[in-house]
Each structure stands twice: as C-alpha cells, then as structure tokens.
Write a structure and sequence with these properties.
SH3 type barrels; two-stranded antiparallel sheet
Length: 234
C-alpha cells in the first residue's frame, strides 16, 4: 500500500471509531505498531486533529472533515483510465468536458497525488479514428438528454437500408463500438442501433416520455440480443 493511501485509510478508520489503539490500527492497516506511531505523528504535524489518550488510544476530533477532493492512488488511476477511455472513444464534446474536469481535479491535488494522476500507466489506445467510432454520438447524447425523437437513415450489416423514427434511451460502449438502445416506431419494439451504421440523423422537435411503459429500464429487461426480434437493427 502506498504511504499516501495508508495515511488516508488511517484517518478514515479514526473517523468511524470513537477511539482506537495503535494495535487496532496496525491490524486494520496491516502494518507494525511502530509504523502507526510514525504515521500518526506525521498526520498530527500536518494539522490533522488526532488526540492520543493513555489507556484509550487515538481519537479524531469530532467535526473534522477531509478535503472534498481527497483520493487514494488507486481511485486516481481509475479516474485517469476512465478519462482516457472517454478521450479516445467518446465524441469530441464529451472528451473536452472530461479533460476539463480532470484539469480541475489535478489543480487541487497535492504534488504526490498529482503525479499519480498524470503518470498513471493505464491507457486506452485507438485502433481506428474516433471520427469513425463516435460519429453522431454527440447528437445521440443530446437527444437522450432532451427526450427528443430521431429520424435516421440506417443500414444493417447485410446492407439493407431503411428509414426509422426512434426514441433514443441510452448508449452502450462495448470496447470497439457503440450501440444505441431505442424504441423503434417502425417495429413498435425495442431495438439496438449502431451509430456507425447511421447514414443520416435528424433530431425532431417531438419529445417523448420515459416515465411510462417505454423506458431504458424496460429495454434492459428485454430478452437477450440473440432473440431474433433484436437482430434486425444490429
């Protein structure tokens, strides 16, 4: 365990216990009691209000709160990977938004944790251009958020082309492609559509309600995708 993570866990442990002995803390963190004494001393020197009482142990002053943007190293690596996946496979607007968010997080981190975030050895390489993968995704995201119906010209894998009016419900990323969960008015049923097979996309002024029978929750409860009813759009 990195030292920064250990110190974070020590404070969290004291926040959830009225008092704890050095041995109890050592057992929780799987370190020696001597290490606990040293860590507590360092935390106290940095201004963390930890009190030591003979026969009782250590306690944290009530009302103490960690800064709102305190992360473990592993949490930061997870954030870095997620941001890199979005930057590689999301649409340009979403990629810019997540990069801005990561910049703000980076700005308030201590130097040691900033280094973890910047140098996280986790990557999301592109195997083809993002334009091919995320084409129309920005429009689809907006339509989902605004509950706007779409008119699409769609081509299936077998080359069959059709005009559809659909109600977009959610987007799924599968590692090498996106699919759109939607209600297809032509089929009067749920369907999955590949954005990269949409030849034209028009957002309509008509909105729809997702609180009724047609919803993403209902889509997710449908039969598996090998059901023949769902192969037409995929």
């Amino acid at each position: 365990m990195r030292r920064a993570d250990r110190l974070f866990k020590l404070v969290q442990f004291l926040r959830t216990h009225r008092a704890a002995t050095g041995r109890q803390i050592a057992d929780e963190l799987r370190v020696s009691v001597r290490t606990v004494y040293r860590d507590v001393g360092d935390l106290q020197a940095s201004g963390i209000p930890i009190r030591g009482e003979a026969g009782v142990g250590y306690r944290l002053d009530r009302g103490f709160e960690l800064p709102p943007l305190t992360f473990t190293s592993e949490e930061l690596e997870g954030l870095a990977l997620g941001a890199r996946i979005v930057a590689a496979w999301g649409d340009a607007d979403l990629a810019a938004a997540v990069n801005n968010a990561m910049t703000r997080i980076e700005a308030v981190l201590p130097a040691a944790l900033r280094k973890v975030l910047i140098e996280a050895p986790l990557f999301a390489p592109q195997f083809q251009s993002r334009a091919d993968m995320s084409r129309e995704v920005a429009t689809l995201r907006r339509a989902i958020g605004e509950h706007r119906a779409l008119r699409v010209r769609y081509v299936r894998a077998d080359g069959d082309e059709s005009q559809r009016t659909i109600r977009p419900l959610g987007l799924h990323f599968w590692g090498n492609k996106w699919t759109l969960a939607a209600w297809c008015e032509l089929r009067a049923d749920y369907r999955s559509f590949r954005p990269d097979r949409m030849l034209e996309v028009e957002m309509l002024d008509r909105t729809f309600d997702t609180d009724g029978e047609i919803s993403l929750a209902q889509f997710l409860e449908r039969p598996d995708d090998d059901d023949p009813r769902y192969e037409a759009a995929c």
